[in-house]
Each structure stands twice: as structure tokens, then as C-alpha cells.
Amino acid sequence: DLENPLLLGDETKEGDTLGLTSAQVALRLEEYGPNEVPIEKVSMCQVFFRQYYGTMPAMLIVACILAAIIQDWEDFGIIFAMLAINGCIGFYEESKALASLEALKNELRQYVSVLRDGKVSSIDIAELVPGDIVAIRGGQAVPADGIWLDGDIVKVDTAALTGEPIARTIPKNDHDQGKKLLAGCILVQGECRMLIQATGKQTQVGQATEMVANAKKGPKPIGRFETQILRIIKLIIITSLAITFVVLGYQIHNRGETFSHVLLVCLSLIIGAVPIALPLVLQVTMAFGAQEMAEHGAIVTHTTALQEIASMTILNSDKTGTLTTAKMAVIPQMTWLAKDQDIIPEDEAIIKGDTGPFIFSKDKNVPTKDDCLFLAALASNANNLDDPVDFAILTAAKAHFGESQLNKYITTFGTRTRFDGFNPDVKRAVVTVEQNGTTTIVAKGLLDKILDTGNDSGTEQWLCAGIHRDDRTSDEAIASRVSSENIESDNNNNQHDELGQQSTARELEAASTNCRRLGGGVRARALAADAVLSSAGYKTIAVAVMTKNQNNTTAHMRLIGLISMLDPPRLDTTATLFCLQRAGISVKMITGDHQNIARETARLIGLGDRILPQTELWPASATRDEMILHADGFAQTMPRDKREVVLVLQQRYKMVVGMTGDGVNDCAALSQAQVGIAVEGATEAAQNAADIVLTRPGLSAIYAACYESRLIFRRLRSYVLYRVAATIQIVLVLASLIFIWNDELKPLYVVLLALFNDITMTPIAHDRVEPSPDPELGDTSQLLIGALALGLIQAILSLGFYIQGERITDIQGFHGKHNLAIRQAAIYVQISISVELLIFACRAPKPFFLTKAPSFSLFTFVMFGNLVICAMAKFSILVAHSISWRALAGIIIYDIAAFLILDLVKVALLWATDSLETGDRALAEPDEIPKLVKAAARDKTSVRRSSLFDHRRSSLIEHRFSERLSVISRLSQGRDHHIRRSSILSATERPSFRSSLRPATPANLANILHRQSE
């Protein structure tokens, strides 16, 4: 019943199909399911309750139960409140991220016209079933997999699936594959009907999403840094539990304490071992970071990405729509002109005197590049801007001549009396212009069809001047030989400038000279030029012209030249890649486009030209893995190829891999990578697979996200170092008091220490810190050693205060039993103030006075917290005994001196481990990228004067941007001990990146951006 379908209309004709019936639709909907990409739904209950899964929540629950058992309701209430607050904040942030993603999905909902029961109706694409007949038109997305039935010859943008920037023409070649329409592709021109053959997970989109689902199976992923934190916390908790059991047995059996009293002491140890507010501060810090990233155009859908992107060492980027605009553009500098001797070596002159159509040529006979561009614009349809070629040519002509001036030239040139648009059969567009008895015919299209129409179905037929059909075979052989020799010679010499254009121009000149030397005709020279341009990644459009008048009735069509087009890079791509490389992140291009196009795009953006074909990825081997590491990218890749590259970099070289993309062909790799990034305008499948969704065009949001995540990482690392050191201090002090002096601290004081001090740390989410110039590859051992050292010093200083308490506080009988309450209060105040000041030592791996000043809110909160602690002690608020002002002054002076000693010890430890930051390298701020691009659009000098290289802003700026990519180079040679210690690669596995990266200097970037803007 699906054969011979009629055009969609309100009525049906007798004997024609009526489409599926409602009964058939119901059966097929039950059999095949809705036409939706299958996505695993997470209930809000699951989102809420998984906030309580983990070591720290479990320990807090245990502490809460113990407090209830011994009826310590004060501690019970505080701990329970913390559990509830942490859970609610985590639930709020995660549900907000899910809602943002859902809003993006709803924007993509689509409706189509479908023929059912003999009537046309508009339905949600989710209701489509195999066998439906639907009508689609230009601008709509193909709703499911199927075949073209009837209607116009349409053009379909398949970039979302294949990465190709040029739309495919459908149908073609009169076979089923030539009529195939795939879900997710965009109809850019024409309208037609299609027969649905596959829906939902049976489509190509659905299969790609299934690969994503398989990659995501397993437990909920935990961020890299969070994993390190949990390891440290688990170690501390296990150690504290062991100490607790020892205390329990020792106090009962050796000192005869009652079980209930010892349990109260053990509760203090358990509470002290658990950083109660750690999840809360982490959530607040990451929520603020996510908000900052959203303001830069990056929506975080998985919070682990906030941690992973800070550790990202390599970024695999798709080309079309990611590095480039996904819109073809004319490259005027690469226009190839057919010279007179190329066109008329033996034939009669075609155009004499002033009768030629070359309005920009001085002698009216020799065409210029301006003439070639103008004639191509004349043969373009201004009313069909959906055609990427016509749109690119007209855009270039308007930009070059000015829109008003272009219209004036066209009007002066003559009246267009006929226009035959491009179609896949004749592969050319032809325009006829009349003026004062002179007829000018301009043609543009595929070179072969411009040189010789070959008696096809086109209205106008010709054989260009200088072309002989008998010489076709020899001309093609000469062109093939010449072009291959020139390309191979150039590749061997590797003589390319930043844009590769000077090199290509030399190849074109050499190809023309060699063709003449070998006796090649016009066809040979044009074919050789076309091959050279194609090898450089350009798409070419040939332009020819013929002028007839009363004195020249036998005129020939004359080949003018070849216009070169390229899918251009986005304006900010070069600057963004430069900044990413300066941040120690290697970048690879992985695209489904042709190798030559990918290579030229890589040259344009300064990425490197070692772009290899997809065939090099198989079969798998150790040599293949090494090749993947050192390549600048891969072309003509399929989804499994992209995922394979990510897997090799992750598993073989233990790298933190980022992947950007916009289409279904990127989904598998987006999901597999630790940091999957869906660029602006990405398909729904790509957004579902990604961890970060960009809402702004270009890659500058990537660098902003990387920059912001390193700020987040530095803040989190500062806080975790502070919190773990403080926890170690508290546990060691409590254990020492119990074992050595049989003294104790009330559980309430321990809760206040864990809670109150962390509340004052919440502004750390806004702290002014300097992002690391290298990927944050610090391992657990470094953080643990630092926390142990700081915690141990703090504990020793606190025990020193306990021993010398009477001298410091001037409290008589400080250690007496009758002074237990005041002694506990003094110990609480000393530990609390010392912990408050500890954050200033943990903020950066350098002396605290050389570190960027803390944010006003953090400094204010810490100072205000100290005042509140002193007020609580003085006026006996939640403190068992009041402390005099003199005693408080002694404690404060002691803690300040202790802080200075602590910072000196920290600096010495960092110096001993080569981890001390000297401040000689820094990252450019994200706001510098658009400034640099704008400066490049003005002139090269202004680029050098831009604030990115402003000596007055920082004397270190020129140094950091003029040196080579030393981070990765030193990573390979092992000269940077700090990077070597923190690297995730062992010495034997660490690869050399030096050969795969180009010098990244201000001059290089300025030149590239200036040339690109021109």
C-alpha cells in the first residue's frame, strides 16, 4: 500500500494510496515504539537519595545515630541539620542542571505533515512509525530514516552525521542509497515526500545513542579530584576509627571509665574525623563555578566535568561546526586565473579590443581576480541563498566590492534575460546578459562541465577555446603527473607558511609551467591547477564567459579561472587554540571530512598539518597507538574511529581527554571522553552525550571553561588541604589529650569546630586565586603529604598551647580538675582561631604574602568568625565558661605566631619537593580572546599592542606568551620536576609532544590572526 504514493494534499484521488490507517499506526507504534532517541530517565527521588551515598554521608549518619543513642540531642540536631542541608543543596544543583538540559531538548521538538487515513495532518515526530509518508521542506530536519519518494531534487546537510560541509543532492544515481534520507540531517533546499523506514533506536541516530548508553553503563562517575578527596577522607576515617576502638578499650579496661562516658568521648573522635561541612563547601564552590561557566556560555550537565576539565591534557575537536563555521567561504587570494597563453595557444583570438566583459581589466582583454569573482556573482542566484556555493560567492562579492557597488556593476553590465540554475545533471549554472546588441553568457560550475559540456541536457552547449576532445586522455595523464609531482615535492620539503597559501601559489605556478613543458593543453593546465587546489583542501568552482555580437558570431566560451572556497575557521578558533596550548593542552582535529580539507583547515588555524586518514587507525597495534599520540588529527573518520582515538589516549597513555562535537557522529566519543563538550547548535543526541553544552558559537567558551575550572580546582584544593589538615589536627589533639593527659573535649566543641569554621569558608567559592598554568595533575600522595605536614605542625602547636596554657592565658591552675570547663573553652578557642588562619597558608603553593590577596568576602568572613569565636568565649555563648580578655589576647598572639611558623614550614616543604610556584607563568584571561580577535581585524600592530601583551599590566605577560610550549616539552624531557611528580604518566610511558607542536609566540599568533582576518 506504499507504492505509487500521491502528493500530499487535502483530498485523495481514486486508486491512490491513503497512507497508513489509524489501526496500522497503533500496531506499528506498539511494535516499534515512539520515534524518540532512547534516554535513561532519572527520577527526582533517585537524585535526592544518591546525595547520601558515600563515605562522608555514611559517617555522619553513624555519628548522628551515636548521638541519639547517648541522648546527646544538641549534637544530634546539628549533625542532622548538616545532613539535610547537604542533601538539599546537592539535589537542587543536580536537578537544576537536569532542568537546563531538558529545556534545551524541548527547544528541539519538531512537528511534520504526515499522510494518514487519506488526510494530511501535523503531528509530533515522536508519533511517526515505519511506513508513514511525510512531507518535508527546506529548513526542516529529517524526522526519521527513510527514502525520497517524489517532489523536488533536494539538498540535504549531512554534517550532523558525516561532518561534510557540502550538502548532498538527493536523489541521485537512481538507486536506493542515492535516495536515502537519515534522521538528524537538515533539508536546506527544495521540498519532497519521504517514506519512513526506521524510527527511534532503529535509526542511525538511535544506534549512535545506544553506543553512548553502553559507554555510560555502570556506577555514577565520580570526578577525578573528588576521587582523590574520598581516598584521603577514607584513610583518615579508617585511622580515626582504629584510634576510637583503641580509646574505647583503653579507657574502659585500663582506666575504668563507664561505657556511656567513653562513648561520648568516642563520639568526639568520630565527629572530629569527619569533615562535616566538606560536601556543603564543595557543592557551593562547584555551584558558583557552574554559574560562572554558564555566563561564559557553557552549561554543565555533569558536575564531574567541573573537576575533569581542570585536569584535561588533550582536546580532540571535531572540525565542521566546531573549529569552522560550517559555511563555505570564498578565499579570494587563491583564485587561479587562466592566462592568455593557456587559453589561446593556437586558436584565433576570442575577445579583441574593448569588447571583452572584463570591467576591472586595464586592457579589457586580460581578466583579473576581480573579474573572475564578479562574473561568478553574476552567475549566482541571489534569491536562492540556501545554496552554499551561491551564498559564499555573493557574500564574498558584496564584502569585496560593497553591496551597492556590486549592484551597480551588475546593472551597468546589462540585463539578465535568462538564468539556468545549477542542477545535479548539468553541474553548472548559466546566465545570459544582453546589452546594446551584445550577448554575454557566463557559466560557473564543475570544471569538467565548464570545459566541455559534452552534449548533456543543458540549454547551452560549448567546448571551451583551446580544448580538443581528442586530447582528453593525454591531458588528464599530464595533469595527474604534474600535480602529484608538485604536491609530493612540497610535502617533502615541508615549505608551508602559517596559512599554506604561498606554498599553494608556488605549486600552481609550477604546475602550469610543467604542463607547458610536457605539451599539455588548456585542459591539462586547468586540471592540474584544480588538483593542486583540491590537495590543499579547497573546493573549486570554474568560471567561463562568452561574448557574441554582430562582428563575432562564432565566439567560443573562454575559461576565466577557478574560484577557491573553504569552510573557514571561526574567528576565535586560532586564538582559542593558542591559549589552550599555552595552558598545556594538546589539541587534535578529528573529522569526517576529506583529508586535504582537514589538513588545510589545520594549517589555517595553526594546528599542524599531520592529519592522517582514518585507515591509519586500523588494525590496532603499539605502533598505531604511538601514531595516534603524535598525529595532529584524523580525517574521514566514522563514529567508532573517534571513540577509538579517545580510548587509546585514555587507556594507553592515561590522559584526561576532552572531546568536542556537534553531531551524531561525535556522540560515542563525547560519551567516552572524560570531558564531552557539545558545541552551540549541537544535535540533541550530542547534547545528551556531553558533559558540557555550549550556548555560544566558537571554542572560546572551551578556554573560558578550562580557565574557570582551574580556578575552581585551585579553590577546592585550597579548601580540601585546609579541611584535611584541620581534621588531622583535631584528631591528633583529641587522641593525645585522651592518651597522655586523660583529658577530653566536649563533643559540642568538636561539632562547632567542624561546622562553624567551615561556614566561614563558604566564600572560598569567590576567592581570588591564580589558575594553574598546567593541567591539574596533582596526585593523592601530594595532597595527603601536604595535609599531613600542615596538620601535624598545627597539632604540635596546639599541644604546645595546652602544655604552656597557664603562661599564655595567665589562667591560674590551668590544668587543674576544677578548671576543666575553662580549659576546654580555651583549647576550643585556640584550635578554632588557628584553623581559621590556616586557610591563608593553604591558598597557594607559595608564601602567603606573595599570593594574590584573598577576596574581600573570604577575608571578612574569617576575621568576623574570629571575632564571633572570641565573643562566644567571652560571653559564654555555647561555651561552658567565660574567658577573660587578657586570656583571649594571649591566645590570639600565640595563634598568629603559630601561623607564621606554619607558613615557613609550608614554603620549606614546597621548596624541598620542587612544588613552589615562582609566578613566572600565568594564563591569559578569557576576556583577552575577543580583544585579540578584534585587534587582529584592525591591523597586526594593534595585535602586538593588545592588552594580552601589555607590559604595563604585567611584566610576566610577554615572557609567558613568547616562550615555546614549555610545559608539554618539559613533560617529555622531565626537566620540570613539579610536573614530573604530578604527572599521571610514568617516566617510561611519558610521550614526547615536542615534535607535534609548533612554536606559540605572540608574533606567530599576531601574524596568523592578521592574515586570517584579511
What does this structure look like?
This protein is α+β, with helices and mostly antiparallel strands and 1014 residues long. 51% of the residues lie in helices and 12% in strands. The protein has 38 helices and 24 strands. The strands form 4 sheets. An 8-stranded mixed β-sheet has the order 10-24-23-22-11-19-21-20, sandwiched between helices. Strands 12, 13, 14, 15, 16, 17 and 18 form a 7-stranded antiparallel β-sheet that branches. It has a 6-stranded antiparallel β-sheet with strand order 2-1-3-9-4-7, with no helix packed on it. A hairpin with a 7-residue loop joins strand 14 (415-420) and strand 15. It is elongated. The two termini are 58 Å apart. Residues 1-16, 341-355, 491-499 and 939-1003 have low confidence and may be disordered.
Topology:
Layout: H1 22-32, H2 44-49, H3 55-69, H4 73-107, E1 111-116, E2 119-124, E3 133-137, E4 145-151, E5 154-157, H5 159-162, E6 168-170, E7 180-181, E8 186-189, E9 191-198, H6 204-215, H7 224-254, H8 259-273, H9 278-295, E10 298-300, H10 304-311, E11 314-317, H11 319-323, E12 329-330, E13 336-337, H12 340-343, H13 369-378, H14 388-401, H15 403-413, E14 415-420, E15 428-435, E16 438-445, H16 447-451, H17 472-493, H18 501-517, H19 522-535, E17 539-548, E18 558-566, H20 573-582, E19 586-590, H21 595-604, E20 611-613, H22 622-630, E21 633-635, H23 639-652, E22 657-661, H24 667-672, E23 675-678, H25 684-689, E24 692-694, H26 700-741, H27 747-759, H28 780-803, H29 805-809, H30 820-842, H31 856-874, H32 885-912, H33 928-938, H34 940-945, H35 957-962, H36 966-973, H37 977-982, H38 1002-1013
Parallel strand pairs: 11-19, 11-22, 19-21, 20-21, 22-23, 23-24
Antiparallel strand pairs: 1-2, 1-3, 3-9, 4-7, 4-9, 5-6, 5-8, 10-24, 12-18, 13-18, 14-15, 15-16, 16-17, 17-18
Helix pairs in contact: 3-4, 3-8, 4-9, 4-27, 7-8, 7-26, 8-26, 8-27, 9-26, 10-26, 13-14, 14-15, 17-18, 17-19, 18-19, 20-26, 26-28, 26-30, 27-30, 28-30, 28-32, 30-31, 30-32, 33-38
